Amino acid sequence: MRHRATLIPGDGIGPEITAATLRVLDAAGAEFEWDRQTAGMAAMEEEGTPLPDATLESLRSTRLGLKGPLTTPIGTDFRSVNVALRKEFDLYANVRPAKTLVPGGRYQGVDIVLIRENTEGLYSGVEMMVAVAGDPRALAQSVAVNTRYGCERIARFAFEYAVRHGRRKVTICHKANILKLLSGLFLEEARTVSKEYSGRVVVDDIIIDACAMKLVLDPTQFDVIVTTNMFGDILSDEIAGLVGGLGLAPGANIGAVGALFEAVHGSAPDIAGKGVANPSALMLAACMMLDHVGQPPRAARIRAAIERTIRDDGIRTRDLKGNATTTEFTDAVCRRIG
Ligand code: NAI
Ligand code: MG
Predict the structure, then answer these.
(1) The domain containing residue 323 runs over which residues?
(2) Residue whose CA is at the smallest distance from ligand 1 atom 42
(3) Is residue 105 part of a domain?
(4) CATH number at residue 134
(5) pTM (2 decimals)?
(6) Dihedral through CA 159, CA 164, CA 169, CA 171, nearest 10?
(7) Same domain, 66 and 121
(8) Which residues are near ligand 1 (CB < 6 Å)?
(9) What residue owns the CA closest to ligand 1's atom 44?
(10) How do residues 136-171 score in pLDDT, each as one tens digit?
(11) Ligand 1 centroid vs 320 CA: distance in angstroms?
(12) What's the first-to-final CA gap in the chain, in angstroms?
């Protein structure tokens, strides 16, 4: 079945890794009908806004998107396009899987999916400064907001994800010992939801600081982790670091009616246009998109091809200490798809 989807190639290395990703999707026979749109700097230059109405309209109609990284224009009062898209489409679940692909690294056998609440918590955007700047008595406040509704739906998302993807365990990560109300509500809701999954998914909970330490000591003890916005932001970068960095880290932003898939990394202006970017993260994001639209066999074929190219063929881009160009790596992945 063909799925209509919005394609935003993005800035910097975005167009290069997007072209590479389209090639592997084609090789695997994935059928998307792409509606190509712009955002970020590319849109700023062409249309004077980083998030054109046409792009929003396209996403409203397709409710499905693949997005390259966007350079956030500095020195303007435009909000981050990524945050604007998350809010506009209520993409409340940020899913970030991380798996060891490169042999010989510090950690082997890591296979973690971090599920982060994407709209609440300390990133609610409610901030205030009490007293004028420069005042020695100045006091800054940021209001963290967790709702029972928001906690319940992210917890349910995590357990459903675990069941659908055959995962063994969900770890609820919190700070309810100190933030008794804010994090307590999240822990309470997540535990309540977990009861519906008893016998199907193992559940445990852990305090955020202990979680950060245990991840470094032995990441293989974790499977799915569900947590609130800021904890998830920090842990997901830590976890990406455990498996070799940004070139391999995909992410999905998922809401009740829409989903947007992207790499975790940015537009990498330092290597843009040089043909050396690692397209794996966006390719893996496209695999998550295939899972999402009900084509897991195609996703599995592409994932296996990426893994074999990196692990068995030793064909790697510079960020993974190889010397393959983006095109050479993509050729190799397409050959592996066969
Ligand atoms: P970045 O992720 O673009 O780059 C950090 C470092 O990682 C650079 O040395 C870069 O060359 C390298 N790198 C990143 N992706 C790579 C890949 N696929 N292959 C090989 N090397 C890779 O982060 P930075 O430099 O902080 O941000 C650049 C721009 O990207 C900024 O304008 C920022 O706002 C934006 N950004 C956008 C994101 C998004 O659209 N989702 C996410 C993060 C940053
Ligand atoms: Mg972050």
Answers:
(1) 1-99+245-338
(2) 266
(3) no
(4) 3.40.718.10
(5) 0.92
(6) -40
(7) no
(8) 13, 69-72, 82, 246-247, 262, 265-271, 277-278, 281, 319
(9) 266
(10) 878 888 899 999 999 999 999 999 999 999 999 999
(11) 15
(12) 21
